[in-house]
Here is the input.
Amino acid sequence: MNKKVLIIGGVAAGCKAAARSKRLDAEAEVTILEKGGIVSYGGCGLPYFISDVIKDEKELMSTAIGVVRDASYFKNVKGVTVHINTCAEEIDRQKKVVKAVHVATGERKEFPYDKLILAVGGEPVIPPIEGVQLRGIYTLRTIEDGFKIKTRVAEKSVRKAVIVGSGLIGMEMAEAFYHRGIDVTVVEMLDWIYPAVLDKDMGLLAARYVSQKGIHVYTGEKVLRCEGSKDGLIQRVITDKRELKSRACHRGDPGHSGE
Ligand SMILES: Cc1cc2nc3c(=O)[nH]c(=O)nc-3n(C[C@H](O)[C@H](O)[C@H](O)COP(=O)(O)OP(=O)(O)OC[C@H]3O[C@@H](n4cnc5c(N)ncnc54)[C@H](O)[C@@H]3O)c2cc1C
Here is the structure.
């Protein structure tokens, strides 16, 4: 009987594992379960999608010759079955089945396996700051997060963005918002930006460059809480040194105010 390889998670690691499994055993029945609606996209491109350097999301999920890597691509080209919107909920290791639910219809299904590969990625770390649940506060990890942020920016109601943390993704998002004409502030708890990848001397140089571009950089400063309007929309970010209000002017457009 053909070996059943089941993979949970269908972005970078999951799709690579699927392709590799087929190369090692062309007869294997390889199946991917992905709880999101899109597989095999380049998460690294999300800031550029939000800044509109990448205009069409299909560019994030296409091969070098422009073929979209969707479920039918995986079926026809790789011989791999993809179930999107399918969340694995339970692994029964005795029976060797994964119990999953379709996130839209609620339909439950069991997927048997001989080999099971977990490629479920990570989750954003959300610091325990009061008010982080307010509307208008986002994390960026999945393409769905990218759609939400880009849609919000496209509504042209966003005038000011505060980035909490100056790691690689935070600074890429600072650049993305800057390119969208948004007034950007970066708040970093440590004394320089990119603290995980740069030493202090280089981090200070990078901060000076970024500040000269017009992005506000506050290092050695901690976000204490976020405050919102009565209907739960973020309005203020309170740090241990200042209050960052949501009402701000568009760069070069002092007459406008908004979020
Ligand atoms: C904004 C941004 C910029 C980045 N830039 C770079 C870069 O420049 N260079 C670089 O090397 N890396 C970069 N990365 C990191 C890179 O995108 C990740 O390392 C890569 O996506 C990890 O792939 P993965 O398959 O392990 O996990 P993920 O991409 O997290 O995929 C895991 C998938 O598993 C699914 N899943 C989880 N649980 C279940 C379940 N129970 N059932 C079904 N499905 C499930 C999730 O929905 C998710 O789609 C960036 C990431 C982001 C967010």
